[in-house]
């Protein structure tokens, strides 16, 4: 009896291998799809921040918006996340997104940016080692008032920034004389409520309008299944 059809043993081995590995392959494709979604959403979120907020250092924005990749495993447990990462000195733009009060207790003023909000803060306006900042401990005086006056005189003479605590109507902060005019570079103890800008919502909405789910899923399937095409 003649053969009805012929079997290519090489193709059969690939088919057996495919059915054996299919559950893990589809988990890999699903995790890759979720991770790609997150990275594409990250682009839209960075764009939303740049379009709606003052960005002085694009590299900083890029470094603060991060992605947690999805890991292959049961589909119900796969998660990929995108968002801002906070540090000890940076809130992650939480107050802008939620419309809440700032977590920072030190606020930089316009004078700290040389009267231009688009400029970076001057070195003298930062509380860093080597900034040559004067405090009341650097001057003498029998009373607190006399020490404060001596501090102000010395700072004006030496052209150095100095720290004053709150007294009366004068806010505590970092000060500096510029052209014989006293400028406050930082304000201490205030937690303002910035203008609410839902940068995360804006970015996600942009992403949802442009994302091509079918293309991304297809690319991930092609990637995990390409070994069967050899």
Walkthrough of the structure:
This protein has 230 residues and is α+β, with helices and mostly antiparallel strands. The protein folds into two domains: 9-99 and 194-229, no CATH class; 106-188, no CATH class. It contains six helices and six strands. The protein has helices spanning 9-52, 58-64, 94-98, 144-158, 199-210, 213-225, and strands at residues 65-68, 81-84, 106-108, 162-164, 173-178, 181-188. A hairpin with an 8-residue loop joins strand 4 and strand 5 (173-178). It is rod-shaped. 19% of the residues are buried.
Structural class: alpha+beta
- In total, the number of strands is 6
Mean pLDDT: 84
Rounded to the nearest angstrom, the distance between the terminal CA atoms is 33 Å
Low-confidence stretches: none
> What would the principal axes of the Cα set say about the shape?
rod-shaped
Determine the strand fraction and express it as a percent band: 5-15%
Number of domains: 2
- Provide the spatial order of strands within the biggest beta sheet: 3-6-5-4
Helix-residue proportion: 40-55%
The largest sheet is:
4 strands, antiparallel
């Amino acid at each position: 009896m003649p053969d009805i059809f012929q079997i290519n043993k090489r193709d059969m081995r690939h088919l057996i291998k495919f059915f054996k590995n299919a559950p893990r392959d589809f988990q890999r494709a699903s995790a890759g799809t979720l991770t790609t979604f997150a990275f594409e959403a990250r682009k839209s979120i960075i764009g939303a921040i740049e379009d709606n907020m003052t960005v002085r250092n694009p590299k900083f924005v890029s470094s603060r918006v991060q992605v947690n990749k999805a890991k292959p495993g049961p589909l119900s447990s796969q998660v990929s996340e995108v968002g801002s990462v906070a540090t000890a000195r940076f809130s992650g733009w939480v107050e802008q997104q939620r419309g809440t009060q700032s977590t920072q207790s030190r606020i930089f003023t316009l004078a700290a940016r040389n009267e231009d909000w688009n400029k970076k803060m001057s070195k003298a306006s930062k509380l860093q080692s080597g900034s040559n900042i004067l405090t009341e401990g650097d001057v003498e005086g029998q009373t607190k008032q006399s020490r404060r006056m001596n501090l102000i005189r010395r700072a004006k003479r030496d052209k150095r920034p100095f720290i004053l605590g709150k007294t009366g109507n004068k806010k505590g902060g970092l000060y500096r004389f510029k052209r014989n005019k006293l400028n406050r570079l930082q304000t201490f103890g205030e937690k303002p409520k910035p203008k609410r800008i839902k940068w995360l919502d804006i970015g996600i909405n942009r992403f949802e309008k442009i994302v091509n789910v079918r293309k991304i899923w297809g690319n991930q399937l092609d990637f995990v299944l390409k070994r069967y095409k050899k």
